[in-house]
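From: lab user (bench 3)
To: helpdesk
Subject: output format question, protein + 6-O-phosphono-beta-D-fructofuranose

Hello, I'm new to running complex predictions and I'm not sure whether the block I got back is the full result or only part of it. Here's what I submitted:
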Amino acid sequence: MRVGVLTGGGDCPGLNAVIRGLVRKGVQEYGYEFTGYRDGWRGPLEGDTVPLDIPAVRGILPRGGTILGSSRTNPLNEADGIRRIKENLAKHEVDALVAIGGEDTLGVAARLYDEYGVPCVGVPKTIDNDLSATDYTFGFDTAVGIATEAIDRLHTTAESHMRVLVVEVMGRHAGWIALHSGLAGGANVILIPEQRFDVDQVCAWVTSRFKASYAPIVVIAEGAMPKDGEAVLKDGSLDSFGHVRLSGVGEWLAKEIESRTGKEARTTVLGHVQRGGTPSAFDRWLATRFGLHAIDAVRDGDFGKMVALQGTGIVRVPIAEATAKLKTVDPKLYKEVGVFFG
Ligand code: F6P
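Helpdesk reply: Thanks, we reran it on our side. This is the complete output you should expect:
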């Protein structure tokens, strides 16, 4: 049995831990061989491979990024994409493919399996934590840790200058990173895409924080939107899966706060630092377990499935089901943290 492995979409801490888990168990317990595909779906599309064996995965557990490289290549955008992938898998004698990715990468895997019979197993990854069917995706815990540390640091500089600091975090159309890091970092305002925000209300919270002689920290998710108006974007560009590139709302909000309250406001956009560097212990643990369970799914011939964390157990769910709907923040959960606003 030869197993192909690819990592697609935005990278995230823990990808190497999955690869290591797959290869170690696959080789040691099942005697499998592996073929790594470079840069997500570009690898099988163009036949670009990298050797993947036990020496190749030595020492990669604590390393961020992915030894296979990643891209947002969408093979379904190519007229003959599916044919080329099938031909390359056959040429490389790959019997099963493990796709490690988020909504887009796994969406392709679901279609390859459901419509074209390509034997795929999915592993969910994204710092956004927005995949339904799994309680957590690896990468999220690391991103929240990085954002929380940044918020802790911003408190002291905000207070030295008595100015507003707006922190824009990633998360696409889900507010998980903003909610968790904002709560852990003691932010005074947390704004998420799931609930449109009222700039006047934000200014009222900011003003009340100053009245208590503290400087406010406003955490805003990149996908958050004002109540009146549209999403605030830097430019309107789209990625190859047709998603608009986010970021810009933090800068916009700081300007609004400054002009409406007369208080100095600055913005910190955390950006890709949230995705870089070494994974947290939790992410290494979760990613490793996903790798071990994904290779078991291959052994069982249980294709079209994605491994998922439910409670403390790893289960298998149909990939198509897991990618059909985004997992967003429950309004009740958001309301719960409102006691700290202002
Ligand atoms: O999906 C992960 C993510 O980091 C989002 O939070 C963010 O909007 C996007 O990827 C950024 O993508 P890119 O690295 O392509 O700019």
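A quick orientation on your result: The chain has two domains: 2-138+279-322, 140-276. Let us know if anything else is unclear.
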